[in-house]
Amino acid sequence: MSRRSRLIYSPDYATYYFHDEHPFNQKRLLLTYDLMKAFGLLAEGDVLPPRPATDEELALIHDRRYIETVRAQGHSTTELPLSASFGLGTEDVPCFPQMHEAASLIVGGTLEAVNLVMNGEADHAFNPAGGLHHAFRGRASGFCVYNDCSVAIAYLRKYYDARVLYVDTDAHHGDGVQWSFYDDPNVLTISLHETGKFLFPGTGNLTERGDGQGYGFSVNIPLDAFTEDESYLEVYHQLVPKVARGFRPDVIVTQNGCDAHAYDPLTHLSCTTRIYQEIPRLAHQLAHELCGGRWIAVGGGGYDIWRVVPRAWTLLWSEMSDQPLGDVPLPEEWIRQWQDRSPLALPAHLLDDHTPFPPIPRRREITEKNRMTLERALSFAPIG
After folding, report:
1. What is the DSSP string of 293-359?
2. Which residues have CB under 8 Å from 73's CB, separation 6+?
3. Residue 280: other Cβ atoms inside 10 A
4. For range 22-45, the mean pLDDT
5. Which of 274, 335, 302 has the alpha carbon at shortest distance from 29?
6. DSSP letter (8 states) at residue 23
7. What is the pLDDT of residues 239-267, one digit of tens each?
8. Which candidate, 264, 194, 316, 341, places its Cα nearest to that of 24?
9. Spatial distance between the Cα atoms of 384 and 379, rounded to a whole number of angstroms
10. Considering Cα of 319, then 279, then 131, then 144, what sign does the dihedral take?
11. Residue 249, preceding bond cis, omega within 30 degrees?
């Protein structure tokens, strides 16, 4: 069994907290961590704590005035005059105490994962609190105060001179990361997401291909609403290996939002936990094939915190740590621990094979539309 994988985790991640009614609920991290432990997937030395990112590290992506405003707002009991202009104090990103400290800890967790992998202390590292891919240089957006994905990629470019493949499988387009590196031919961003016609952030069109020297290094697959496992995985398996092999990265960074699941309350895709077994499996294979195993994974979206997120990210860690799990029952101790606190019946198995989902009437049409989208994306992607 390989122990060349590390999980970056701390209960302090829970301080990134908007309010009780907000869909971004960090209780999902504790549920996930407890499920990993219940499965016996965490050995001594596997789990390392995060550390806060410095202002200098945050400034690799974020404007210093923005950083100063986030810090000041987190220490104020009233909304500061500049906060609204920076996207703070909105319905999506309400202000909360110690906002800078909580957000910079998440970024620092992802940077810890970067250094572990790039310094050869681990082949793979996973920061489940990361994946805050919507924040921009000077603006919060989509539940994200700082963009740990973008900061990590900028850090990889500056300190390791690495060619970075970024693969984002969140149901929402990875807009903040895409625009941060839109003209950089050394960063290739791939985003598979629900079409932005009816879903935030409304971007991620096929025509968003990069600019200048980076033209062709931004690849988007806007999937039709109600896409199911078969179509999703067909696109993923036909796109990602071709693009990755054409690009030849030094390191792979994956954003592993799990809001494409049929249970997710904020999106309109219709996948099951099967895709969360397949997505990391391919990333793992490509990391060893193309870049010496160097793979950094972060979390992302996922708003059914009881039935989906713990299973999806446990599947990711089981793959990353070479402890594969099949369609096994969830540990009774985990169900006993959490069922009384859950407003929903917890699933009995790791995979959804035992759960009937309603048929999608437009299945054939959706599948064909996704194939056409894939064909168009491959026609201008750098696939060698």
Report:
1. T-EEEE------TTTTHHHHHHHHHHHHTT----S-BPPHHHHHHHGGG-SSPPPSBSSSTTS--PP
2. 79, 80, 83, 88, 89, 95, 99
3. 26
4. 97
5. 302
6. S
7. 999 999 999 999 999 999 999 999 999 99
8. 264
9. 11
10. negative
11. no
Alpha-carbon span 307 to 117, nearest angstrom: 31
* Residues with Cβ within 8 Å of residue 61, at least 6 apart in sequence: 137, 146, 147, 150, 151, 154, 180
**242-245: long-range contacts, CB 8 A cutoff, minimum separation 24:** 242/378, 242/381, 242/383, 242/384, 243/165, 243/188, 243/190, 243/219, 243/381, 243/382, 243/383, 244/165, 244/286, 244/290, 245/286, 245/289, 245/290, 245/383, 245/384
In this structure, are residues 39 and 1 in contact, taking their beta carbons and an 8 Å threshold? no
DSSP code of 83? Answer: G
Nearest Cα to Cα of residue 205 among 225, 221, 182, 184? 221
Token code pair at residue 292 = 């010496």
**Residue 22 falls in the annotated catalytic set:** no
d(CA 318, CA 1): 11
DSSP 8-state secondary structure symbol assigned to residue 266: S
* Averaged pLDDT, 136-142: 98
Q: What is d(CA 240, CA 249) in angstroms, rounded to the nearest whole number?
A: 12
Q: Quote the CA–CA distance of 50 and 46 in Å, as a whole number.
A: 13
**First vs last Cα of the chain: how many Å apart?**
35
Residue in the block written with tokens 């839109």? 182
Token pair of 349, please?
């198995």
Q: Residue type for 181, please?
A: F
Please give the structure tokens belonging to residue 92: 């999506």
Q: Domains in the chain, ordered, with CATH?
A: 5-380 (3.40.800.20)
- Out of 62, 134, 173, 284, pick the active-site residue: 134
Per-residue model confidence as pLDDT tens digits over 54-79: 999 999 999 999 999 999 999 998 88
